[in-house]
Specification:
By secondary structure, this protein is an alpha/beta fold. The chain has 17 helices and 11 strands. Strand 1 (219-225), helix 11 and strand 2 form a beta-alpha-beta unit. Residues 189-198 have low confidence and may be disordered.
């Protein structure tokens, strides 16, 4: 099945499931159940397939072998060592679906199944990756139905509908959770009234960031996202280069759970990623580490404490000023730079205000250019490409050791997009143009310009893109003599019309208009 057909079928199934939940809860809550069950289905199918393969030489299947006590213990140890978790046959998705189809009561077994996944990893190396993964899937919620039987009926319908989605576990290129998440956000974000753009980066923007930080690299040792959301941005890097280890931090509990799910769903071994919960600015979890590729889409102009204690923090101390309390954009940039290795590259999505705002932000910006010379490129993106916000954004690219350290490349890609319903979309040709312009540092009329550091200094370190890329289209010159002749012609025509009106009025015996 082609990716396009699979995606279309997936969206149809997701819409059908949303229909089951519609009217029972807010739209932004749908995804907690839908994505949670998708992941449970994936883990069930993965362990069954893995253990069936391990038992091939014995001529047995997992469900059959587990009935033998000796096999049962060995299979559990094998799964936890290699997959990081274990589910016994009676808690597999296929078992629960069979019960649902017979209209049996499934809530109790399903709840145990979700809990068993985390419990099975307790005390093992994978404990942090599986702990409380399904805590947002509340099977006892009154929103699912007043009576227990009503709740059971709702969940059974969802489970049966999800059983129709076929995972191809060999196809690690297919972003099932990412596609599902993007579809759900796209359909229900406005209804839910959430700033979904703060925790989900559209795939076309993810692709730009990932390709930039992996340019001319086939291997990345450590990739990092300090505001990793559902983890899709991090995972996108692995489509462009071989990534040894992934690191991320996420404040929101729900999206932190989704990030861990997403890693496992993409077949990233549990010991090859470390996603931690917390505020990267206030409570950084990886202070002693540096990373070769850093990507991020931090919440735009978020608030932070800007506490005086951060003046002594090595991430911020050299700049002389802290980012303002009302706008943490530069605090995230400084945090990321601190963690960037000398030969690494970082790409971060930011609002345009970071290019020209004054006071503390101006001082930080000036330091980044004048003292450090870290800013490699500024790429202006179209407005309305993020869910939940229509503001235009940009990608800032920074490196500690730059190949082109005497200029900053400015790209204005804000006018190159396709409008799809209420959303603007970057098509492949738009993405290719951005990447080709960046990779080759091309200067294209009304699209890109390499501004020298002297030029930037002359602009008082203001990086507003229109100062460097002139997109103004001159109007055709007006022939004044021709215009005067046209006005005289119109005046004569109006005189003729007036005469006719007066004549008609006299014939009708009415007073002509003044």
């Amino acid at each position: 099945m082609s990716d396009e057909i699979f995606k279309k079928e997936l969206e149809t199934k997701l819409w059908d499931i949303a229909d089951i939940l519609r009217g029972k809860m807010d739209a932004n809550e749908y995804k907690n159940y839908i994505l949670g069950f998708i992941f449970y289905k994936y883990l069930s199918e993965k362990i069954e397939k893995y253990l069936d393969k391990e038992l091939e030489e014995d001529g047995l299947k997992f469900k059959e072998a587990y009935k033998d006590e000796e096999y049962a213990q060995l299979l559990e140890e094998e799964a936890i060592t290699n997959l990081g978790y274990f589910l016994e046959p009676k808690y597999l998705f296929s078992t629960i679906v069979a019960m649902a189809k017979k209209e049996e009561f499934i809530l109790e077994d399903l709840e145990k199944a979700l809990n068993k996944i985390g419990e099975s990893a307790a005390g093992s190396d994978s404990e942090d990756d599986f702990e409380n993964l399904f805590e947002d899937v509340d099977l006892q919620s009154s929103k699912l139905g007043k009576a227990v039987d009503d709740k059971n009926s709702t969940i059974s319908e969802i489970i049966k509908k999800l059983s129709e989605i076929q995972f191809d576990l060999e196809d690690t290129e297919r972003d099932v959770l990412g596609d599902a998440y993007e579809y759900l956000i796209g359909q229900f974000a406005s209804e839910a009234g959430k700033k979904a753009g703060e925790f989900y980066t559209p795939q076309e923007v993810s692709k730009i960031l990932a390709k930039i930080v992996t340019l001319d690299k086939s291997k990345i040792k450590k990739a990092y996202d300090p505001t990793c959301g559902s983890g899709s941005l991090l995972l996108r890097i692995s489509k462009e280069a071989d990534v040894s280890d992934f690191y991320g931090q996420e404040l929101n509990q729900t999206t932190y759970n989704l990030a861990r799910m997403n890693m496992l769903l993409h077949d990233v071994p549990f010991d090859d990623f470390e996603i931690r919960r917390g505020d990267s600015l206030e409570d950084p979890q990886f202070m002693d580490m540096q990373f070769d590729a850093i990507v991020a889409n931090p919440p735009f102009s978020a608030k932070w404490s800007s506490d005086k204690k951060f003046n002594e923090d090595p991430r911020f101390s050299e700049y002389g000023k802290l980012a303002p309390k009302s706008k943490a954009d530069y605090a995230f940039v400084q945090h990321m730079i601190y963690h960037l290795s000398d030969d690494g590259c970082m790409a971060v999505v930011l609002p345009h205000g970071v290019l020209f705002r004054g006071a503390a932000e101006e001082k930080i910006r000036r330091h980044l250019i004048e003292k450090n010379n870290y800013i490699d490129a500024i790429i202006g993106l179209p407005s309305n490409i993020f869910y939940g916000t229509s503001i235009p954004t940009l990608v800032m690219v920074l490196k500690k050791c730059r190949n082109h350290d005497d200029d900053i490349l400015f790209i204005d890609a804000s006018n190159e997009f396709e409008k799809v319903k209420n959303q603007n979309k970057l098509r492949q040709e738009h993405i290719n143009k951005i990447l080709d312009t960046y990779a080759n540092r091309k200067e294209i009329d009304k699209y890109s310009h390499k501004a020298t550091l002297n030029e930037i200094e002359e602009n008082d370190f203001n990086l507003n893109i229109p100062r460097y890329v002139d997109t103004f289209e001159e109007e055709e010159p007006i022939d004044l003599d021709e215009l005067v002749d046209e006005i005289h012609k119109i005046d004569k025509e109006m005189e003729e019309v007036d005469k006719k009106i007066i004549k008609y009025c006299e014939e009708l015996g009415i007073r002509p208009p003044v």
